[in-house]
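Retro notes
What went well: the complex prediction finally ran end to end.
Inputs used:
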Amino acid sequence: MKTHARPILLVEDDRIDAMTVTRSLRELHVANSVEHVENGEQALAYLKDPASTRPCLILLDLNMPVMGGIEFLRETKSNGLNLRRIPVVVLTTSEEQRDKVESFDLGVAGYMRKPVDYGQFVDMMRTIDAYWTISELPD
Amino acid sequence: MRQWQTESKVLAGFALAIVVLAVVGAGLYRTMVDFIDTSEAVAGSQKALTTLEAVYSLMNQAESHQRIYLLLGMTEYLDLRQETVARVHGQVTELVEMLGGDPELSAHLPELERLVGVRLALLDNVLEVRRTRGFQAGQWQLAASPGREEMRRLGEHVVFMQGELTAHLQQRQQAAQAGARRTLSMLGLLLVLAVASLTALYLRIRRESRDRRDGEQRLRAVVDTAADGIVTIDARGRIESFNRAAERLFGYAASEVIGGNVSRLMPEPERSRHDGYLKRYLDTGEARIIGTGREVTGLRKDGGLIPVSLAVSEVKLGARRLFTGILHDLTERKRAEQRQARLIGELHDANEELKNFAYVVSHDLKAPLRAVGSLADWLASDYADRLDDQGREYLDLMKSRVTRMDALIDGILEYSRVGRIQEMRTAVDLDTLVPEVVHLLAPPAGVQVTVEGPLPAVIGERVRLQQVFQNLIGNALKHLDKPEGHIRVACADDGDHWRFSVSDDGPGIEPRHQERIFQLFQVLTPRDRKESTGVGLALVRKIVELHGGRVWVESTPGEGAAFFFTLSKSGPPDRGGEQQP
């Protein structure tokens, strides 16, 4: 990541998927901290909380209890949270065209399918890290 | 046509009977006239006979009177004698009058007149002698009786004439009788004819009326037993007939509604409008329902509403215009439609559920699978120093099974997506698509893939067509059992279809498997040896069939296999389904 000061917000309900993300980031020596929340509602609460640090990247699962990823994206839009400046990468199992279209309509920066193979997962995370290391972000 | 024929036949029969009766009447009239004539002639002849008799007897009387006068000199006998002679003249004159019309008989009259005249002259002569020469001379004259011979001749002539008269009379009577007999037999014949023709006429009319009655009864039976309600109204909307099915349909007895306005069988607002509809139709011919049919709502006696299909036709009976409505109860059909709609709804729901199922599978089945895969991976790496070869092999097997299950789930998702989600249909140029597919599949060095172009452009879903070629060429590559091989892609014109083929020189497929391979999850080799989901050919078949074609395989084991599929030149048939954006 370009900056190590800001955390990565991981919105993921599945414990092992969350472990997969944190483990792969650790293996890739990504220095940013990972803030793990379990659904969209908690993610909104984190973003609204003045005490919390603004993340440099949001990794968003779509299928979650309480509030799913798509609903979270809609909420952030209508709540006027300035989310556009935080890149959101969807990490999901869904191959549904509908989900892809809605996600991009709501301004996501990327849409990735979680591979079943852990090695491929690490490769995917490496690409994400590499991209956001090169890409500039507004403060 | 038949009606007209019958009527003209009856008319002809009547005319014939009337003519016959007229002829009979005329015949009778003539016979009667003849009879009267003959009777008159008979009476006339009788009189003529009597007159002849009278002439003869008066002549005798005259002679007797004259003789008495001559013998006794009594003058009153002279007077009587004169009177009698006068009567003789009168009778002769009458006879002349009577027989004057008959030349045959009147021919004998002069002789009679002459004989009477001779006889009277003789009498006169005797009388003259008496007057001129005295009483004695007269008596001598008398004794000499000079007129005896003349009297005998007169008598003979009278008898002769009587005979003539009688013969004439008989002849006439015979002629009249023969005529009457002839006329009567003729009349009898004609009467028989008239009776026969009237009988035939009667039978004809009776049959006709029975036919008509039968026809009416049959029609009534048909109308009464018809499953549909049949109601007839006149031009003012009054009900003229109401069959049993209509009674059942509306709950009214026919007697309750006949003569009443048909609008009572309709709910508002039709009830108030019906007279207007009818009037407008009669005035302008503008039909809302006549000649066609449509679904309407009927009002039952109990106030219930019933859906009916109504077909109205117009019948013109002379100047009268009738309208016949046939009403079919749609309650059952409506119920069936509702049931059908409900079933379709349920089917739709079930379909939705299936779609959701695919979605759920993709999300909820994959997450634990991924977890298993990751955990196996972490175990292998984190505990590498504590695992022996066996443990590592187990973990490797576990990871490979996770990968296979992932592929299976993807296959299910892909298979369920085909047909459920309709992609854009465009003209797909296979001449560019197929080489792309071959390139993507990256055949190994020893394998030659020939595309025998030019391939046509077809209308369809690009991604799906790509999947078809990808699976067929991919299978040929995957199942090739030797390092060198040749795969051939070709196309033939098959009328309104294109017939494509992908053939290889691989191991081929046994005939008993040739249908099974197109079924979902059917593989011929163990998955351990050849990683295969068993989705590919099922997917190919589904795609080809959705594009309006069919797919089959021709193969001889050991000599390779050829997969064929057809695609319609006019594009795939239309089908429902959601369009992908």
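What we learned: Helices of chain A lie at 15-27, 40-48, 69-78, 97-105, 118-134.
What to try next: split runs per interface for comparison.
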